[in-house]
Amino acid sequence: GQQLNQSPQSMFIQEGEDVSMNCTSSSIFNTWLWYKQDPGEGPVLLIALYKAGELTSNGRLTAQFGITRKDSFLNISASIPSDVGIYFCAGPYNAGKSTFGDGTTLTVKP
Amino acid sequence: DAGVTQSPTHLIKTRGQQVTLRCSPKSGHDTVSWYQQALGQGPQFIFQYYEEEERQRGNFPDRFSGHQFPNYSSELNVNALWLGDSALYLCASSWEQGFSYEQYFGPGTRLTVT
Predict the structure, then answer these.
(1) How many Å from the N-terminal Cα to the C-terminal Cα in chain B?
(2) Which of B45, B48, B106 sits opposite A42 (nearest CB)?
(3) Which residues on A lie below 8 Å from B93 (Cβ)?
(4) What's the half-sphere exposure (Cβ side, CA atoms, 13 Å) at B107?
């Protein structure tokens, strides 16, 4: 089946730093989704991307849909402690059925 | 506006037993998907229900079955539980006529099989 590879697996950063993470696939996706999951919660949708090359922002978060349609990137600017959590990329295919990466765990040190 | 709700929050079962998990979708949503999330991994798609029918299925055995009711709520049933079924089970809802790729997740049910 389709697999998504996320990197890095984990990040330890200082509050105020910028963060970059990415997601790659061997298959082409027509949509990329980025979710954040806090402990004990379900994933929360952060950004949805629908077009190759698209750059979309949500507050301090910016995500890009790669030109090849096989990758996507998420950047967080000026990180704050509440950014801590696990960030997942997902590629939906076939009527809402989504495949997820294994996540990037972000730790922010005050 | 209530989001996706799931019950119970936690559950402990013994190998070989059967379990039923419940999900109520976000108001206005008509499609429900179920995912299994093992520790340290991303969610894995189990199946999706729309109009009370299973529409899509992931790579899970027939021990996993489900149901959708006329009010769009859904159940996930797992028979003959294995230790490997221990995981967080997530329900996600979406609206078929909207951007159905944008799913809203519930908080999950933590299942422990001993």
Answers:
(1) 37
(2) B106
(3) none
(4) 11
